[in-house]
Design brief:
Layout: E1 11-12, E2 18-19, H1 20-47, H2 54-75, H3 81-104, H4 114-120, H5 124-129, H6 132-141
Antiparallel strand pairs: 1-2
């Protein structure tokens, strides 16, 4: 068996023809979400004392669920792509509607949004990891027909 570094760029028949590099990068993202975000989120959930502030509780519960579901992505990277797409969408949206206006006004530095902006700017990693051809081909271009073969779709 010879080691071929170029093989990571080949399409993997075990993963619907998605390049191996994308599968490896997706798994890395899921591992980071599961362990890094999961540790912080589960720690907040399990060690919280007293009554939760409702909005804060929603944030921690969503992040905990998000991180926990990422564990499935380690083993089924393509099936769990929607959580990566959700991550990309909410981070890019937040950077666009919150961080950019503050930056354009020169008020981002030193604001309460500065730390979140720094952390959300890493959204480039999931953007690079996602196999966009697979996403468009499976979610937009060839929708699954409803019902059984031969039945009319209403």
């Amino acid at each position: 068996m010879t080691l071929n570094p170029a093989a990571i760029f080949h399409r993997d028949p075990n993963h619907e023809g998605v390049r191996r590099i994308n599968i490896y990068l997706l798994r890395l993202l899921y591992i980071l979400m599961f362990f890094v975000l999961g540790k912080e989120a589960w720690t907040q959930i399990l060690t919280h004392q007293g009554t939760w502030e409702p909005k804060s509780a929603v944030v921690w519960c969503v992040w905990t669920a998000f991180a926990t579901l990422a564990g499935l992505g380690i083993f089924r990277p393509l099936k769990m792509l929607p959580i990566i797409l959700l991550e990309i969408f909410y981070k890019v949206l937040w950077l666009t509607v919150v961080a950019y206006p503050l930056w354009a006004q020169g008020t981002l530095a030193g604001s309460t949004a500065e730390d979140i902006t720094s952390s959300f700017s890493w959204v480039i990693l999931p953007i690079v990891a996602v196999p966009w051809g697979y996403v468009f081909g499976n979610y937009f271009y060839k929708p699954k027909a409803l019902g059984h073969p031969g039945s009319a779709v209403v």
